[in-house]
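Technical appendix A lists one of the benchmark inputs used to test multi-chain prediction within the project. The record comprises two sequence entries:
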Amino acid sequence: MSDKVLLDYGSGGKASQRLIGELFLKNFDNPELRRMNDGAVLSLPGKIAVSTDTFTVDPIFFPGGDIGRLSVHGTVNDVAMMGAVPRYLTCGFLIEEGLPMELLTSVVESLGAAAREAGVWVVTGDTKVVPKGAADKLFINTTGIGEVIVDPAPAGDRATAGDAILISGTLGDHGLAILSTRQGLAFETPVLSDCASLNHAIEALLRGLPDVHVLRDPTRGGLATTLNEIAIASNVTCEIVEDLIPVRPEVRGGCSLLGLDPLYLANEGKFICIVPEAQAEAALTIMRADPLCTGATRIGTVMAPEKAGQTGRVVLKTGLGGKRLLGMLEGEQLPRIC
Amino acid sequence: MSDKVLLDYGSGGKASQRLIGELFLKNFDNPELRRMNDGAVLSLPGKIAVSTDTFTVDPIFFPGGDIGRLSVHGTVNDVAMMGAVPRYLTCGFLIEEGLPMELLTSVVESLGAAAREAGVWVVTGDTKVVPKGAADKLFINTTGIGEVIVDPAPAGDRATAGDAILISGTLGDHGLAILSTRQGLAFETPVLSDCASLNHAIEALLRGLPDVHVLRDPTRGGLATTLNEIAIASNVTCEIVEDLIPVRPEVRGGCSLLGLDPLYLANEGKFICIVPEAQAEAALTIMRADPLCTGATRIGTVMAPEKAGQTGRVVLKTGLGGKRLLGMLEGEQLPRIC
C-alpha cells in the first residue's frame, strides 16, 4: 500500500478491500468482522444499550492517549453508564486524503488494543476518504452496543433527595492535557489525559450494588454541566462541596494559569455515581478496588428543590463556607476536545 | 439561535442543549430520544443486524435527495440487506463552524422525514462542531439496528450455482446525478438520484420468500464491484447479460459523454437479489409490487467456477455475444458520492 492514504482507499473497490484486509481485519480480528458483510448479525439477551459518538480530538496523539483509544473509551463508557456491559462497537473512519499511512496504522492499532482491553469487538465499520482539505486529518465515529444488566437501569432522572454524589477520581485531567499540548505549555509535572474504559469498574459496581440511581461520565462540559443535566432531569438540587472535589495540583495550577475552571473541563476516564446514602460506603469500596478508581470519593448530596416549582440546580459549597450556583457550560471552552 | 452554527453548539453545554431541543428532538421526536440520556435502551427480540456508514456526499443537496435522506436510506438499506427489519438509527453530526443554520435545519428535517417514511426511530445521537476549515460543511454518521427476520439470513457467501441474479431497477442514477451536478452538466432529461429506503420492499420479499440467498445494494463501486464481492465470498462465477441490465437512456448518454461505465456507478436505491432459479419469478413478482422496484428484472445466473481452485469472478455477456471479465472498481471514479 502507499505511504499515504489515497482517495480510492475509500472507493469501495479493490483498494478499499486491501485496506480492510491489511489494516482493519488484522487489528480488530473477530469472527463477526471476518464474515465481511456490510454489517454484523449479533445476539444479545434482553435489553440493549446503544450510544454513538464522533471523535474529532486535536491533536490526534496527546499525552495519555490518542484518537483511537479515545474512540473506544468514550463510547464504551457511555454504554456502561446506562447499566450495561459493552459488547460490540461499530467504527466509521473519515480520513483526509494524504494522511500518512503510518499515522492511520498507529491509530488503528491503538483502537484495536483499547477494544481488546475493554473486552469489546469491533464488528462492522465504514471508511470514507475525502479530498485533501475537506477534513482535518481523521475523524472517527463509534457506536457501542451493550447488554443491560440491571433493571431499572441507572438514569439521569433517578437522582433522589438524600442520595450521595460520588466521583471516581480527579477532575480536569483530559481537558488540561489537550489544552496544554495545543498551547505548547509544559508543566513541571506533565498532565496526562485520564482517558480509559470504565466498563470493568462499572460492571463490578452494578453486580455488587444493583440499586445505583445515576451513572454519568462528565465529558464535554465537565462535572458542573453533567450535574446540571442530572439535576434538571431529576428535578433536584445537587449540592457539592468544593473542598471534597479531587483535582490534581498540576491541573489546579494549569487552570489558574489559563483561566479555566476544572469543574467545566472534560474528563474521559471518570464517572459520577449517585446512590442511596446507605449504600455510599459500599459503592466507594467497590469503586476503589478498581485500578482506575482508586481516588473515588464522596463530593456531595442530592437535595429536594428549595422551593416548589424550582428547576434542578447545582450548588457549590465553597471553601469559605459560601454557596454558589454552578450553571451549565456557557460558550465553548475548548473545541475538538474529544 | 444564531443563523450560523457556532462552535459552542457542539460543546455539550447550554447551546448544545438548545440545538438538541429545538432542532433534533423536534424533528426526530420519539419516546426513547425524549428521555435525553447519553444513549438509548432498546428491546429487540432475537438476532439483531447492525450496520454503520459515514456520509460525506458533495454537494449536500443533489437532484433527487440530500445528505439527510441519504444518511437514512444508506444505513436502512444495509440493515435490510442482512435479512432484517430496520428499527433504530443513531445519528452523529459533524458540522463545520459557520454552517448556515438554515442548511442544517433543512438537512435535519429531511433526515427526520426519511426516517419516518422508513419507519425507523433516531434514538440517540451526537453533535460535534469543528472550527472553520476543519471539515467541509457537514458529515453525518448513522448506525442502524434491525431485527433479523429470517434464518439463515441472506449473505454474500450464499450464492449457489444455478441461482438467478435479479436487480430491482435501473443502474447508475445516483452516481450520474451527483457527477453531473458537480460538473454543472445539464441533460435534456434531468437525471435524479435513486436514493430511497428499500426496507419495505425487502421485508415483503423476505416474508413472501424466506429462502433468499443474497441481498446486497450496489452502492460505491456499483453492480460490478458488488457482484465481485459476492462471487469471491461464494466462490462462484456471476454471469450477467449486458442487454438485460436496465440503464436509463439519459444515464447511458451521460456515461458515454463522461467516459464512465454505469456498471461501476453508485446506486442508492437498488438491490441485487440472488435466489434459487425456481423462485426467480415469484421474487420478481413481489419486487415489482413495490413502487421503488417496478423495474425489477433478471440480469443473469450464478455458475460454478469453470476450473477447480478458480476464485470468484464476474462475467459479462456482451450484446455482440462475446464474454468479458468484469473486475472490481480500480481507482476512484468519484469521491464523496455518499
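The longest strand of chain A covers residues 84-96. Chain A touches chain B through 84 residues (CB under 8 Å). Comparable benchmark entries are summarised in Table A2.
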